[in-house]
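Task: sequence design from structure.
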């Protein structure tokens, strides 16, 4: 679990992630202030910081364990400080179902995966500066699992409503 504070930042093992204005508004709309949260970041929302330049987001150092080349992109597996990591049995089962248990060391400890451009210089055994698009992070209330950042898709008008 991590902590969201009043300044609009989420304290995580990757550093203090700033919430964008629209994410902060979504959290406020749900009537919830400072709290313990679970943070979700999809692999495609990471990038090699050297590739994105000064694009808004958050950069951090990550010790790369495994690099998997997929041709036009690479997957970089990295660990992070476990002291604040969620250790839910459901997450461990999902990791096993996704095949992480078959890769030595990935099912143990706190791990993440980043989908990076193929030109990234991420290499196993080296530390790489990664970037995360903080506009795309997902926050869940740690107490009840409710998404704090999900936005309902706009409902298309029914044909009869469009004529009214």
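Answer:
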């Amino acid at each position: 679990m991590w902590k969201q504070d009043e300044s609009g930042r989420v304290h995580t093992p990757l550093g203090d992630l700033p919430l964008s204005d629209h994410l902060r508004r979504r959290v406020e709309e749900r009537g919830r202030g400072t709290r313990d949260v679970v943070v979700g970041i999809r692999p495609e929302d990471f990038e090699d910081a050297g590739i994105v330049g000064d694009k808004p987001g958050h950069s951090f150092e990550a010790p790369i364990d495994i690099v998997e080349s997929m041709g036009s992109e690479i997957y970089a597996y990295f660990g992070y400080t476990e002291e604040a990591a969620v250790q839910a049995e459901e997450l461990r089962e999902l990791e096993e179902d996704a095949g992480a248990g078959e890769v030595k060391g990935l099912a143990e400890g706190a791990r993440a995966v980043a989908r990076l451009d193929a030109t990234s210089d991420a290499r196993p055994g080296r530390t790489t500066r990664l970037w995360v698009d903080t506009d795309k992070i997902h926050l869940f209330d740690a107490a009840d699992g409710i998404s704090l950042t999900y936005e309902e898709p706009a409902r298309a008008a029914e044909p009869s409503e469009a004529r009214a």
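The radius of gyration is 18 Å.
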